[in-house]
Amino acid sequence: MKRLLDQPNALERLLQPETPLEAQLLAQPIFREGMFWGEPRFGHPEGKVCLHVNEVLDNINRIPNLDPDDRRRLRLIAYVHDTFKFAEDRSRPRDWSKHHGVLARKFMEQFSDDAVLLTILETHDDAYYVWNSERRGFLLDFDNEQKTLPDLMTRIAGFEQLYYLFFKCDTQTGDKTQASLVWFEKRVPGITYVPIREED
What's the pTM? Predict the structure, then answer.
């Protein structure tokens, strides 16, 4: 895989853009910088963001009977969701306005006004954060705003299923713990369980 990433048009060959917008995103220098960022770490043994995105795209392809518009949205979310991790503020206390999901949304606003897509981009990690805070017995402080499951459900009202599908495709990659996904599938009303891997 490393040899593939050293070749010309490596991102295009790896991620196989299907639409003019996907190709346009891959042509942006700052976007390409983000795609090539990352070293192997817990949750992301693959290292570089583009390799993680490729795994998420593979999962999207496994969703049975997926509506074409939902597939288009999910692919765009996959492309952009982690691409701004390299620019994220990791100081303490954290500035959550500079979380990579917020940065991803701001970037994508140049290319789309799809409120559903933009909201999922911004909040794609919130389900994990809420699960993590619940299991630890306290709420995480998000810039003096406490994130709870009701907060998240308010943000994603009307497109809970699409949020769930992306959360599942993102979580079932690398060596991420699956406990947050199991929790989400049990706790969140209004979603339909969808298997995308043989072990589901």
Answer: 0.92
